[in-house]
Every structure is written in structure tokens, then in C-alpha cells.
Design a protein that fits this description.
This protein is 15% helix and 38% strand. The chain has 203 residues and is an alpha+beta fold.
């Protein structure tokens, strides 16, 4: 009988020890697990146009973002670290958009706070936003970058003056006649087409 009591007591001690050990381990794991999240909750990535994503996270979390464009080449872009605002939401905008008109972009966002870090990612389909006359480069009249070196197929989408490729010392602009010159900024541009109406821009 005495041996049975001792055996039962021993089993209880072992069980208690295991329970305490598991509890401490669980607390340790919980303590080492970040108590915040980083989530990509929306956004749009446009081809050659301003784009943005929206991140939700805890206030004060340092945020970093990388984008891998697949269209078809892979381009790695790194943006500076930012901080979520007091509401825990941050909209990350950039002007150039994707360097292509189709494909996908994998957005990877990492957050860090008090020595802890988390990483999340989301795949976006790159949205084609055609420009004037449906051109695939997104050229339009909204202020942006002057076009000094238009692509070889430019005149497939725009009505070009006859000297477009031979008088190419300036940047692209629309004449009052509706035709396009490659000589804006040079004296005499669009002289046979009513003069310069407005520049065409890339973004």
C-alpha cells in the first residue's frame, strides 16, 4: 500500500513538473511572437502610371517595401522605410507605376517594432492604363517627363509630321493641326501645322 501511495505521489510530481514546463514554454513562445500584424489591405499597380498600396498595421511600426515586377523581366525596387500613422494605416504611393503594361507585381512588406519583425506579401495584376490614342506607353498631356526619345512605333499611334524622325532635336509635342512633332523647344517647330499646342508627357 505504501508503495502505491509513493508511486501515485511520484506520478503527480512528474505531471505537475511537465505542466509547469509546458506553461513556461508556451509563455516564452507567446513572448517571442510579434503582437502586431502587417497586412496589405488594398491598392493598385498601374503600368507606367501612378500607383499605390495600403498597409494596415500597429502604430509606430517601421515599414519597408520591396516590389518584384514580372513583366516579363524581374526588376527589384526598394523603397525607404516608412512608419504607419496613428490609425495604423498607411497608403504608399509612387509616381512611376510598373515599368510595363501587363504581368504581375509581388509586393513584399516587412514591419519591425521593439526588435520583432513580420513579413507579408501580396501579388497584384498590373493594370494597363492606356494613354492618348490608346498608346501603350501611357503618354498623355498631364505634366510629367518630356519625351526626347519616343519608341520606334510612336507614329503608329500618333499622326506625325513628315519630318518627325529627321528633325528630332527637341521633344515630342502636339501641333495645332493635331499632328505631332519631335522638335518642340526648337525654333520653327510645327511651323507648317499652326504652331505648338502642347507637349506630350511620359510618366
Amino acid at each position: 500500500m505504501k508503495h502505491k501511495v509513493l508511486a501515485s505521489f511520484f506520478v503527480l510530481v512528474v505531471a505537475f513538473t511537465l505542466l509547469v514546463g509546458l506553461t513556461l514554454h508556451y509563455q516564452s513562445v507567446q513572448a517571442s511572437t510579434p503582437r502586431y500584424t502587417v497586412a496589405i489591405i488594398g491598392g493598385v499597380i498601374n503600368g507606367h502610371k501612378p500607383s499605390h498600396i495600403t498597409i494596415a498595421t500597429a502604430p509606430g511600426v517601421g515599414i519597408g517595401m520591396r516590389i518584384f515586377y514580372r513583366c516579363p523581366s524581374v526588376i527589384r525596387t526598394v523603397y525607404p522605410n516608412q512608419h504607419a500613422n496613428v490609425l495604423g494605416r498607411y497608403t504608399w504611393a509612387w509616381n512611376q507605376g510598373a515599368p510595363c503594361n501587363n504581368g504581375t507585381a509581388v509586393v513584399i512588406v516587412n514591419g519591425s517594432k521593439s526588435g520583432q519583425s513580420v513579413v507579408t506579401q501580396k501579388t497584384f495584376k498590373i493594370v494597363l492604363v492606356p494613354g492618348v490614342n490608346g498608346n501603350p506607353w501611357g503618354y498623355d498631356f498631364a505634366p510629367g517627363n518630356r519625351i526626347y526619345n519616343p519608341p520606334a512605333t510612336f507614329c503608329n499611334y500618333f499622326a506625325c509630321v513628315s519630318s518627325f524622325w529627321t528633325s528630332a532635336n527637341g521633344y515630342v509635342a502636339e501641333c495645332y493641326s493635331g499632328k505631332y512633332t519631335h522638335s518642340d523647344g526648337v525654333s520653327g517647330a510645327c511651323s507648317r501645322n499652326g504652331g505648338i499646342l502642347r507637349p506630350l508627357y511620359s510618366h
